[in-house]
Write a structure and sequence with these properties.
The chain is of the alpha+beta class. The chain contains 25 helices and 8 strands.
Length: about 550
């Protein structure tokens, strides 16, 4: 009896244990079955994607999400372990058309959820590289950086090495001051060396690189090669203009003048005939003035001035000629009627004259007005550089001048003087190279010759320039020539002859050369070139002479106004 009771009790206990285990398993299984596990995405089958698209998965599980994997065409592309669960898809790297995206989510309990999408990449590549590059350029003009970059990448995908796409990429890099990337973008493109616009932009980026402190050792060599690039670009543009319409003498002459070729521009303008309209006559006069042939320039303008047929352009060019003849008061008077009218060329002529005459505050106001009216005019920035006291800001304006007007000699001579006057004077060789570069392009440039005399005399190398100075003195009786001769002869211990030239210089210009004693070369260089700008290579540009007319937006009256 007791045995049977014990056996029955044992059977009951065994059933209880089995029931408990079953309950535990059931509870465990039930928990997994009841776990909330969802996987969705905002995209749907057939959606189009482009550029850099972000595929976001919304995964939820009451047990927690371990990871989410993204597959493109059966290739694992990304694994996300934290929110947001996303795959950043650079679609430009893939082929156009349909692609399968599979998303698999894993929860912490080992369960999975999967969804698959059929998406279509559409980067408009059938439009072609040129059309896409145009869209990139339009976006760049509109300051839509993201769109500009996207269309540039699309264009490059359609045609690797596309020059127009490369120009946009370079411009975007330039906005971030990444000059190395900007230069590389152009230089790696196809056919950039046959594209004048690309070459011009490349030269601009290289100039920015050259001005970085780490490139100071090669400054002169780099700058000269940059100007050669600009020359190539300008010459190509002139050739293209001539090929397009050989009979359009005004357009061809303008292209030649922009390329720094004043002599050929003058000859091209004159092909239009003797009875030329004022528009052409002004250009001929400008071409002569930029060749330093002020007599012929004035001869072209004098009849029109006498007959009161001159316009503000004529008066500005006439003022330029007077500046180059060191007739500063007369130059300012020539444009007096146009001051305050918003005409930048007149403000520039007046500012040039006021700088030389020591009226710096007045010159600064005029230069500011010129820059405001013609922000892209190199001559406006040049005269502005002369009025700014801060050396850093002044040099920044000088760099803008060279960027906008690379063929004007004055800014290079000015830059050379700045380099030579730096302390410590470790940029002297660069200064001489720049002046020699100007003289190579313009062998008769008097201002460059005088600065070269002062530079080499300051270094005790006067014998190297004696012949050159002798030639200038014999062919030019200007007071600054005589003053440089006096400085040079004093250094050569020829005091008697030096005093003779000094006296002649003072008598010729009592305003600007009233030195108590003959200065040494460095002192005179600082005064003559850096402060007075007595022979600054004065020039005018098309941007200041012919500024675009302001666009007048019509005012639509409102109902209240009516």
């Amino acid at each position: 009896m007791r045995y049977r009771d014990f056996y029955s009790s044992l059977k009951l206990q065994r059933k209880a244990i089995i029931g408990l285990c079953t309950l535990i398993v059931a509870l465990s299984t039930g928990s997994a079955a009841r776990a909330e596990f969802k996987l969705t995405t905002d995209l749907k089958d057939g959606d189009k994607v482009h550029d850099i698209s972000v595929v976001i998965a919304h995964a939820e599980s009451s047990d927690g999400i371990d990871k989410v994997e993204f597959f493109e065409d059966d290739q694992l592309k990304a694994t996300a372990t934290g929110t947001p669960y996303k795959f950043t898809w650079d679609t430009i790297a893939d082929t156009e058309g349909k692609h399968n995206i599979a998303i698999t989510a894993y929860d912490s309990n080992g369960q999975t959820k999967k969804l698959t999408l059929a998406l279509e990449i559409d980067n408009e590549l059938p439009l072609g590289a040129v059309a896409l590059a145009k869209k990139a350029q339009a976006a760049l003009v509109a300051n839509d950086t993201d769109a500009a970059l996207a269309y540039s990448r699309r264009s490059t995908k359609a045609e690797p090495g596309n020059i127009e796409a490369a120009r946009v990429t370079a411009a975007l890099a330039a906005r971030d001051s990444d000059w190395t990337k900007a230069v590389a973008s152009i230089e790696k493109s196809n056919g950039y060396d046959n594209n004048p616009d690309a070459i011009r932009e490349l030269a601009g980026y290289k100039l920015k690189m050259t001005l970085l402190p780490e490139n100071a050792a090669n400054f002169s060599s780099n700058l000269i090669s940059i100007v050669d690039l600009r020359q190539k670009s300008a010459d190509m543009s002139a050739a293209n203009t001539k090929a397009t319409d050989p009979s359009n003498h005004l357009a061809i002459g303008d292209a030649l003048l922009r390329a720094g070729n004043a002599k050929d521009a003058q000859l091209e303008y004159q092909k239009a005939g003797d009875a030329m309209p004022l528009e052409l006559a002004n250009r001929v006069a400008l071409a002569y003035a930029l060749q330093d042939n002020t007599e012929l320039s004035i001869a072209y303008m004098r009849p029109r001035i006498a007959d009161k047929m001159a316009d503000r352009v004529t008066r500005a060019i006439y003022g330029l000629c007077l500046l180059r003849e060191q007739k500063f008061e007369a130059a300012r008077a020539a444009v007096a009627a146009d001051l305050g009218s918003g005409y930048p060329a007149a403000e520039i002529i007046a500012a040039y004259a006021d700088v030389v005459n020591g009226e710096t505050a007045k010159a600064a106001a005029e230069a500011e007005a010129a820059v405001k009216a013609a922000p892209d005019a190199g001559d406006a920035h040049y005269v502005s550089s002369m009025t700014i006291r801060s050396l850093t800001d002044s040099e920044a304006e000088l760099v803008r001048t060279i960027s906008a007007t690379p063929f004007a000699s004055g800014p290079y001579v000015d830059f050379a003087a700045r380099l030579a006057l730096q302390k410590p004077a470790d940029r002297f060789d660069d200064a001489v190279k720049l002046v020699d570069f100007v003289l190579k392009r313009e062998p008769d440039n008097t201002g460059a010759k005088l600065v070269r005399v002062l530079l080499l005399t300051a270094r005790g190398r006067g014998k190297e320039v004696s012949e050159s100075l002798d030639y200038v003195v014999r062919h030019n009786k200007a007071p600054d020539v005589k003053m440089v001769a006096a400085v040079y002869l004093t250094e050569q211990k020829q005091v008697g002859l030096a005093n003779q030239f000094w006296d002649e210089a003072v008598k010729a210009d009592k305003v600007h050369f009233q030195f108590l004693v003959v200065p040494n070369p460095t002192q005179f260089l600082s005064t003559y070139e850096r402060k007075q700008h007595y022979r600054a290579g004065f020039f005018l540009t098309f941007e200041s002479l012919f500024p675009p007319k302001p666009v007048v937006v019509p005012v639509v009256p409102t109902e209240a106004g009516q």
